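Recall from the previous chapter that SMILES is a line notation for molecules. Here it describes adenosine-5'-triphosphate.
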Amino acid sequence: MSPSPSNSNTNTNNKTNAAVLPLLPLRVLFPKSANARQRAILHEFASKNGLLHYSIGEAENKSRRIVLERPDEKEETRSGNNTVEIDEDENDGTSLSEPTDEYLCDIVRTHFQIDLKSFDEYDIVEKNDDEQKKNNKSRQTNASTSAVSITTISEWTTKTLHLLELERVEEIAQSLDALNTSTSKKKGQHKNALDGLKIVDARGGLLGQTIVTLEVSKRKMTEKDFAPPLPTHSFTPHDVVRLRPSNVKFEEMSTSNSELPQGVIYRIRDSSVELALDDVPEFLDVSPLRLEKLSNEQTHKKLVLAVQGLQHALASGYSLGKNILEIVFESASPRIIHCDNANAVRFHPFNENLDCSQKSAIQLCLDCVDVGIIHGPPGTGKTTAVVEYVSQEVARGNRVLVCSASNVAVDNVVERLSGVSIFRTATVSVDNKKKKGRRERKKKDLSVEIEILAVDDQSKTIVRYGHPARLAPAVLDASLDAYILRSDDSALAKECSEDSKKIRTRISKLDYRKKEDRAERNDLRRELRELAKEEKKRQKLAQAKTLEKASVICATLAGALSFALKNEEFDVVVVDEAAQALECAVLGVVMKGKKLVLAGDHLQLPPTVLSDEAAQKGLSTTLFERLVRNKRFGAKITTMLNTQYRMHEDIMVWSSDAMYDSKLIAAESVRFRKFEQFDKVLTLVDTTGEDDSFMENVGDDDDDSKSNLGEAEIVMQTIEKFLSDAYKILPNEIGVITPYSGQVSLLREMRAARAEENALFKDIEISTVDGFQGREKEAIIISTVRSNENNEVGFLSDARRMNVAVTRARKHVTLICNCETVSKDTFLAHLVQYFEENGELVSSAQLRL
Ligand SMILES: Nc1ncnc2c1ncn2[C@@H]1O[C@H](COP(=O)(O)OP(=O)(O)OP(=O)(O)O)[C@@H](O)[C@H]1O
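With both inputs in hand, we obtain:
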């Protein structure tokens, strides 16, 4: 983005000149000579006051400057009108000198009419040049800049409740949008609704749930054997949905809405969707059916309650997690066990393959009394470290809550924990002499030299809490429902339920006109009430006993905030993938434990926030990032894992240099991991100079619906090449990633068409970057989509997004882009340059030959 020309309102150096500027919208370009500290403070000030803030220009040639913007209240657009450009020579006539803090305060006061009294209110240390350069390299979004902002808990609570409300309104708006779409409009399709479906299968077996499979109903009998692909949609597994007949409008069904089957998406394939429902729907044979996404009010309510609970907890005398909150809001410092040989590893690992950085990270987390952090760049074995850490805590007799934002991540931990010996068989203590006094010592003395494994004789249990449809089949056995079903109390509850059924049948046969029948009915009803009470009691008991016995409870963050876990207390709360979790959700579970351990990577994608305004104002800023970047103690409580086990060194080096201060190393086992068929691990396909109309990205500016037909064709050609006899790459080894959902839809349609000729195409996975986070493939093809005359790159320039896309690959990356367009962004220019220097350069024209 280039600075807009200044208008007449540029004379800001005169303090008396308080001309009232047009109120909305307003865009102020601050002096280029403002230093890093001043820019950071302005970012933070803007974030706190609801102003848009970003930087423009190049850091290298010192033309970088910060821009603060008051958007149009109605439109929320960056209209760029009323631009005020503060020229350098207005800074007391000394063009090259840094502006004074007072001068910048004046600019803020004059133009935004908000009183920024002094820059000293902000505890931000000026970065030196080197650090600044690195920062520019590993550039973050505005949210990252606001991550340094520390407020009081009451300010934070007020702000967060407001942001959660914005998010709720946006979620409802999107879901209503789907519900109100007329069934005939645009072939009945909408992102949040799928129409024209029919039930092709209904089966039981998921802990009492019914799994219903829906496909697009075929119109012509002549159509091929397989079902047509589902139209474009935004459904993902675990969404809460409602099913209803298509040809009845929503408004007309209002009387029976509550009876429409609601359930959870169990699985989604290209041409089918599976739902988990409590019961078999009545309209099993009706077609067409419509599936609608519902907003998840429950989660919102839980988050609001959690946020409100925090303030209360801090105000009260004692509450679990208070020590952690005080650190988060900076009224206390984190405590770490002091040990003479602090760097030595003082635990006996269950996993003998841990590398040095993993062991150090685990040791530090064991030593941290309040908060510990494991920073795990892609493929560095973050979850491996989490699993070992949890096992170590359990071995010390501690009870652990393990959470993550997503079900997949929780299941991953459960599966891996189940393989650790302590959870399978009884384990013997390492040092019996010291075992007895361990608890006593721990209370009094934080400088214990050697940690001791104090292991009970009983085997430890892991309980996975969550809706069965949201759990991976491999962990169903560990689910709370499965434990309950296996328990004696549950068997008794079932007997009660069966007896009740018999009694109801008997009641229905009684003739209430007969006196003796009436008397019997009254007796039977009394019995029914007793049975219902007993059934409930048994169910509750079964649940309580299961939870009580559990050494580790695993749940999503939303699950952990559920009523069922309300009274559960833990020694440690561990949050995996914490850099993708909403800060308020993490702080909610903090109140359940004495200690918090976070694992994640703030240099990969942040949590998804639907409301742009809420995201802009800080809802997508994570606690993980806030703590890692804390200048006072962030480094003390954080260990970064530095050895990656996923990708060839050539893929890793770009990410390491761009994002991780060149600190990553490739494990020997993966360092030279490549396809022998390729000369190079990296390929750059440059579309610059191709037919503009074919290669231009199309789609709205303000969303992710962009697509690029030309690039999509190149993706198909590349897949064809990989699958050919010359390369013989398996389809499930190939992943296609693109930042835009519009391009995903286009690519999926093209894949379906190609699959008719070559069935291998069916198994090629195509997804957005967000959809691929946490996953990996042998070969990754990236379609960047952006190609336009204005050289606009949009949200492609978020360093974290490209970091995730590239680091999904183990052996090969093909990057398809218009080098001219994307190179206008400094960060992407480095990426292109890296591929040029270290990979094979192919022009799209060459590829067609
Ligand atoms: N010390 C180790 N020695 C050998 N292999 C390891 C080691 N640690 C992790 N791995 C392997 O590296 C891979 C990635 O591990 P893990 O899933 O724990 O990483 P992660 O950091 O959580 O991954 P992601 O980047 O997807 O979040 C796994 O295949 C794991 O077995």
